[in-house]
Design a protein that fits this description.
The chain is mainly α. It is built from four helices and no strands. The model has no long low-confidence stretch (mean pLDDT 92).
């Protein structure tokens, strides 16, 4: 009775860039709606629309960050996080050793 009418969330899946390109190409042809293509491949309509949007950005047809820029941004954010942790550790070590030498 606790989950009447509610669906469980779909587990996160990953897809190859080739698969995404194929789905985007089907959408661009216009033979079927995005909703129908999503249903045929057991995908969410939102995911397919996002893939189409990203393909348009990558092709220069729409403003936004390209896939390579997104990857670079994610890598820089990860590196920034690691560097912040390193600085924090060094600050703590400096404070510890300054306290020990007094």
């Amino acid at each position: 009775m606790e989950s009447m009418g509610k669906k469980k969330p779909r587990p996160r899946r990953s897809f190859t860039s080739e698969f995404k390109a194929e789905v985007v190409e089907l959408c661009r042809r216009g033979d079927c709606s995005v909703g129908q293509i999503a249903k045929d491949f057991d995908l969410t309509e939102a995911a397919v629309r996002e893939w189409v949007k990203q393909a348009e950005v990558d092709a220069g047809e729409r403003d936004g960050l390209t896939s390579s820029e997104r990857e670079e941004l994610a890598a820089l954010r990860r590196e920034n996080g690691r560097l912040r942790e390193d600085v924090d550790i060094l600050k703590r070590a400096t404070a510890f050793f300054a306290k020990e030498t007094r």
